[in-house]
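Form 7-S
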Amino acid sequence: MSFASLARREFLRFVAMSGGAIAAAPLFGDEPAAFKEPVFRVAKGEQNTAAPADSHPLDPALVVAREALVNSQRNVADYTATIIKRERIKGVLGDYEYMFAKIRNRKMDGDKIVIPLSVYLKFLKPKSIEGREVVWVEGQNNGKLRAHEGGLSGRFLPSVWLEPTSTLAMRGQLHPITDIGIENLIVKLIDRGESERKHGECTVEFIKGAKLQGRLCTVLTVCHPVQRPHFEFYKAQIFIDDEMQLPVRYSAHHWPTDPKDTTGPVLEEYTYIDVKLNQGLKDADFDSENPNYGF
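Output:
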């Protein structure tokens, strides 16, 4: 079943489609692509229909997420993309970071990993980390990643092997490299949704017609109006690319302290742009000895 038909069925069952539309402001103006910060504007819709008594507002979102996971597992071998991320670490919201990524998805044969999750990153911006490269392959090199620094210091420092969760590897990072990728994002969304389904105080809204870098998306917004210890965020938005049927943007926000603020401070946000699926990536793309890399 396609995303569109699945979404229509679930919307009729659980939520009312809003009459509004979402417009994501263009990622890029006069500056080169990947060098302008993303801005999104969301028009509010209305929800008027009640869900069945035995359902939860998150149920349609979970169905869509599971459909996306099956799609990724069956149809996506690998992809390249530019990842734009911004994270709040120890209360401080960092700058946007831009990185070119090659990612090969994990493939299983029963319980056996036949193709390991593989990641290559090259940082593009800001200037202080421009040129940083990281490569990691699941189950290889004793589980370690290899990295070399960018910026001015990168000219003098050697490449290093690091545990992905080590202090040095996690410096300035909210999540380890082992969690990166669209498929991992889907899994985390499912896990979080299943956990939050145990609680109420949740609203869910789907709106079609968003545009992210010119690509049509459906936006899922999850909101917890009341702050509770078991909720990790006030509001989260997921942009699902209508053609690829995959999430390409996730943002989470804390509860606002200003009554006029309807979004809340950013906790974390990740955007995948220029996604190119099934590029036929090889082992060499994830080998630090690749002569095209700077390790």
